[in-house]
Amino acid sequence: MGLDGAGVATLLSRCITAVWLYFWLTNAPRIKVWAPVRLSAWWGAWDGSEFKKLLTLGVPIGLQLVSEITAFSIGAVMIGFFGVVPLAAHQVAIICTYTAAMVPVGIAMALVVRMGEASGNVIVGQKRMILLGGLGFSVLFTSIAMVAFIFFGQWIASSIVDDRDVVELAVKLLFIVGAFQIVDGIQIVSCSALRGMGDVTIPAWLGALCYLGIAVPLSALLAFAFGMGAEGVWWGLAWGLVIASVLLGARSWIIAGRV
Fold first, then answer.
1. What is the pLDDT along the chain (259 residues), one digit of tens a residue?
2. Taking the model in full, what pTM does it have?
3. Integer CA distances (angstroms), 171 to 23, 161, 208, in order
4. DSSP letter string over the chain?
C-alpha cells in the first residue's frame, strides 16, 4: 500500500491507543485514587470559567510548541533547496533528534505533576529540589546521547540509510545534534517545570523569540549567505536551542524559588 499503508497503520494505532486509554482510565485503581467517581461523571454541565482557565494555560503552551515545530519545519524547507541528499541526511538527523528527546520529554511530563503538587502544597525549597532532580536526570541521559551521536554517528547513520553521500552528510549533522543534546534537554525540562507552576505566558514568548526570532533567521543566514548549506541550518537551530535553554532555565529557577 506504500505511503497509504503507513497512513492507515498510523490511524489504526491512534484509534486503538485512544480506546485502550479510555478503558484504563475507567478501570485502573490508581486513577480512582485521584478521581473516586466513575469517568462518566466527569461529563458535567458546561463551565465557562473552567474552560477559560484551560485556555489561559493551553493557548500559550500551544504557541510555544508551534514555534519550535515551525522552526524545524522551516529548516527542512530550507534544506530542501540544497537537493535530495541533504534532505535525506536531514531526515536521518531529525529522527535521531526526536528519538533522543523522548526521555527528557518523559521526565518533563513527570516534572509537570511534581511541580504542580509542590506549588499546591507551598513547601519552601521543594520546587527547586524537584527541578534539580529533573535537570539532573535529563543531563545524565542527554550526555549519553551526545557521546553516541558525536562518536558513533557513522554507525547510526549507516543503520538507517545505505547511501554513501547521505551517510557522509548525516554524520556531520549528527555531530551538531550531539552538540546541542544537553541544552535541548534543559529547555524541555525547564518548560515543563514552568508549566507545572502555572507560568506559561512569558515562556511562550521566550520560546517564540528563540525559535522563530533567532533560530530561523540565523539558520537562513548561515545556510545561504555563508554557504554552509544543511549544516548551517542545523547550527542555527542549535543556537536557538542554546539561548532557549539559558532563558527558560534561568526563569524556571527563579520561579521555583518563589513561595
1. 888 999 999 999 999 999 999 888 877 877 776 665 555 666 667 778 888 888 999 999 999 999 999 999 999 999 999 999 999 999 999 999 999 999 999 999 999 999 988 887 766 568 999 999 999 999 999 999 999 999 999 999 999 999 999 999 999 999 999 999 999 999 999 999 999 999 999 999 999 999 999 999 999 999 999 999 999 999 999 999 999 999 999 999 999 988 6
2. 0.86
3. 44, 11, 29
4. -HHHHHHHHHHHHHHHHHHHHHHHHHH-HHHHHH--S-GGGG--S--HHHHHHHHHHHHHHHHHHHHHHHHHHHHHHHHHTT-HHHHHHHHHHHHHHHHHHHHHHHHHHHHHHHHHHHHHHT-TTHHHHHHHHHHHHHHHHHHHHHHHHHHSHHHHHHHH---HHHHHHHHHHHHHHHHTHHHHHHHHHHHHHHHHTT--HHHHHHHHIIIIIIIHHHHHIIIIIS--HHHHHHHHHHHHHHHHHHHHHHHHHHHHT--
Sole residue written with cell 515545530: 69
Closest CA to 202 of 248, 134, 249: 248
